Request: fold
Amino acid sequence: MTRPPTAAQRRVIDAADPVTGRLRGTEAQLAALVKRGLAFRHPRPPHDHFLTPAGHRIREAAPEPPEPAAEAPAATGVFAARIGGEEGAPEMGPARVREVHSAWQGLLELRRMTNPDGAMDRPCGWERRHLVQAAALALEAAGHLPAGPEPDAAGYRVRATPQPEAVAVREPDPEGLRACAVTLEKAGWQVGEYTEPRTRARYLLASPRRM
Reply:
């Protein structure tokens, strides 16, 4: 069996960019991770190092502190797409637009690097492990506005579902809901529109497309 990474190497892996897998560390640390097959050196300048799928698996296997019961992610200083309904969410100003654009471009690069055929029009493994964040990023990057914290606020809300590899997207405006469906389909998701039996409200079920 392959020896587990050292504590110093593990810190480098854990500190990798959560979307792109870009690494920062000493030349010796990065070279050791490449030798173990946990990282690779990008062939184009500036020749940054990124996690391989094996490196991502090790990073994902790291023990995580229990998450709070609230659906919205806590503010941690790490980029998080707005899923709708958050309290204290970042303002939708120019800085946020730039941050979201950068995160989306990083995700497209991650698709290119980790999908077996290099496809950028189809979700990658990271997105399948972070369904809510991935779908929300696709929506936010396309200019859709997330809902505010009020229960009846306009805008999208992305939530996990009991179904494997499926998220629910709700948007009170029917045209806005259809626009969300178009965006997700363009981003490589399979989308269906359904009706809540009790409330008769329409919503989307979206799953990452495999082919």
